[in-house]
Specification:
Blueprint (H helix, E strand, L loop, with lengths): L2 E4 L6 H10 L8 E4 L10 H10 L4 E3 L3 H10 L12 H4 L4 H9 L4 E3 L4 E3 L9 H16 L3 H8 L13 H14 L2 E2 L5 E2 L14 E2 L13 E3 L8 E3 L2 E3 L9 E6 L5 E6 L9
Parallel strand pairs: 1-2, 2-3, 5-9, 9-11
Antiparallel strand pairs: 1-12, 4-5, 6-7, 6-8, 10-11, 12-13
Helix pairs in contact: 6-7, 6-8
Length: 274
C-alpha cells in the first residue's frame, strides 16, 4: 500500500495514465494525492475529471486556481479565457455531477506525516490555522450559498494576514494563499506579479517556504502551482509541479519516510489557433 502525491495535470490525461503505469498504481491498495490544477490548458480536462472522480477513496485532490476558475466560469462569475480548454466540461452531459464533485474537494489535506496544498501557506499560519481556514472555505463551497462564495472570491486584497480582518476578506486571503501564493516579503505580504525561477524576484521577496520563522516550519508540505520552480526540496517542503503542460515532466512523489520521486517526460501541449 502506497501514497503518491502527483503534481499539476492541467488536463494532460494521457501523461497521467503513463505515470500511473510507471508507478504500477493499484486503486485497490494505493492512494493518489493530487496537488490541484486537474484541469485547463491541456487537451483532456473532461477525461481527467471523470477519471479522478471514478477513483473514489483511492484519490484525494486539493483545489487549485484553475479548478476554482472552472467552477467560477461554470457559475457565471468569470469569463472564459482564450487559453482555456474547459468547453468539453461545460458542455458535458455529466457537467453538474462533475462540478459538484469538484466543489466538495478540500484546499488543504494532511495525514500524520505530510500536508498537501496547491500553492502555499502564509508565514503567520501554523497547522491549526491552515486547517481552520480550509474548513471554512470548504463549508462555503459545499453549502447552499456557494454562489455567494464565487461572487466574492476574486481580488488581490487583502494581501497580508490580520486576525481582525472581516470574515469575507479572511476567506479571500486564504483562497489566494492556498491556490496562488509563490512569493511574499518577510512580513507575509503577498506578491502576485512574480512567478519565475528563484532569484528572478526583487530582493525584498522570498519564496513562501523560505520566510524566516514561518509558523509552519517543521511540517512536511507538498505543493504544486509553480512550474518555473520545477521539482524542489527545501525546509521540508516539496514542489512537485514539473511543467507537464509545457513539455516538462509529470511527477509523482511516493510518500515514504524518505520521499521518492518518480517522473515521466511529457510532450507538452499548445491549444490550436482557431
Amino acid at each position: 500500500m502506497a501514497i503518491y502525491a502527483i503534481g499539476d495535470i492541467q488536463g494532460c490525461f494521457d501523461d497521467l495514465q503513463c505515470l500511473l503505469a510507471k508507478i504500477e498504481f493499484d486503486k485497490t491498495q494505493d492512494t493518489l494525492w493530487f496537488a490541484g490544477d486537474l484541469v485547463n490548458r491541456g487537451p483532456k480536462s473532461l477525461e481527467t475529471l471523470r477519471f479522478i472522480k471514478s477513483l473514489g477513496d483511492a484519490a484525494v485532490c486539493v483545489l487549485g486556481n484553475h479548478d476554482l476558475h472552472l467552477l467560477a466560469t461554470a457559475y457565471g462569475f468569470s469569463p472564459k479565457k482564450n487559453k482555456d480548454t474547459l468547453t468539453p466540461i461545460l458542455e458535458a452531459e455529466d457537467r453538474e455531477e462533475l462540478l459538484s464533485w469538484l466543489r466538495h474537494q478540500p484546499l488543504f489535506h494532511y495525514n500524520q506525516y505530510y500536508c498537501l496544498v496547491h500553492a502555499g501557506l502564509p508565514p503567520q499560519w501554523d497547522f491549526l490555522m491552515a486547517k481552520t481556514m480550509s474548513k471554512k472555505i470548504e463549508s462555503l463551497l459545499q453549502g447552499e450559498q456557494y454562489l455567494d462564495f464565487f461572487a466574492a472570491m476574486y481580488g488581490n486584497q487583502p494581501d497580508q494576514w490580520n486576525e481582525f480582518l472581516p470574515e469575507k476578506e479572511k476567506i479571500r486571503f486564504a483562497v489566494n494563499c492556498f491556490t496562488r501564493l509563490r512569493f511574499c516579503n518577510e512580513a507575509g505580504k503577498l506578491d502576485f506579479k512574480h512567478n519565475g525561477v528563484l532569484g528572478s524576484q526583487p530582493e525584498h521577496l522570498l519564496p513562501w517556504f523560505r520566510v524566516p520563522n514561518r509558523k509552519s516550519l517543521g511540517l512536511n508540505i507538498i505543493f504544486g502551482h509553480w512550474s518555473a520552480l520545477g521539482y524542489h526540496e527545501e525546509n521540508q517542503c516539496y514542489a512537485i509541479d514539473t511543467g507537464c503542460l509545457w513539455g516538462g515532466q509529470l511527477t509523482a512523489l511516493k510518500l515514504d519516510k524518505i520521499p521518492q520521486r518518480i517522473s515521466i517526460e511529457c510532450a507538452g501541449y499548445k491549444k490550436p489557433k482557431i
